[in-house]
Specification:
This protein is mostly beta strands and about 140 residues long. It has a single domain, classed as Pnp Oxidase, Chain A, CATH 2.30.110. Strands 1, 2, 3, 4, 5, 6, 7, 8 and 9 form a 9-stranded antiparallel sheet that branches. A hairpin with a 4-residue loop joins β3 and β4. The longest helix has 9 residues.
Length: about 140
């Protein structure tokens, strides 16, 4: 399975992802980042060699390839409308490429599982949103 057309449109409409990596001693580290989704992979990174010294790059370089991303937004508080996608994936060592913020170094993330909710942007009502779970096949 893969992302639906609605999920892809949502991913491409959002500017930030919260990206979590595992650091030394298993300490989780999460940071909001600009990201891009090319239809198969997620890419995070940026220009200059200093990006490769960031914690997320060091964590992946140290062999901690399991990552998580959350792309979400709060459409409204009244009525309550939230939507988003949580993704588990595998990060690879940096690639030198031209990405959404210019030439630089980018980590490529292959999604393995995802959970999405409320792509239609509907009010929550009396119950919480149903979740769509997807197991992604490796490209």
């Amino acid at each position: 399975m893969s992302f639906t057309d609605d999920e892809i449109a949502y991913l491409r409409s959002q500017p930030l992802a919260r990206v979590a990596t595992l650091g030394e001693g298993g300490q989780p580290d999460v940071v909001p980042l600009a990201f891009e989704f090319d239809g198969t992979f997620f890419w995070v990174g940026g220009p200059g060699s200093t990006v490769t010294n960031t914690r997320k790059f060091r964590n992946v370089r140290a062999g901690n390839h399991d990552v998580a991303l959350v792309i979400d937004d709060m459409v409204s508080l009244d009525p309550f409308i939230a939507r988003g996608i949580r993704i588990y994936g595998r990060a690879e060592q940096p690639f030198e490429r031209v990405g959404m913020v210019g030439p630089g170094y980018y980590i490529r993330i292959t999604p393995t599982s995802s959970w999405s909710w409320n792509m239609a942007g509907e009010p929550a009502g009396d119950t919480w949103y149903e979740t769509r779970r997807t197991v992604h096949e490796a490209p």
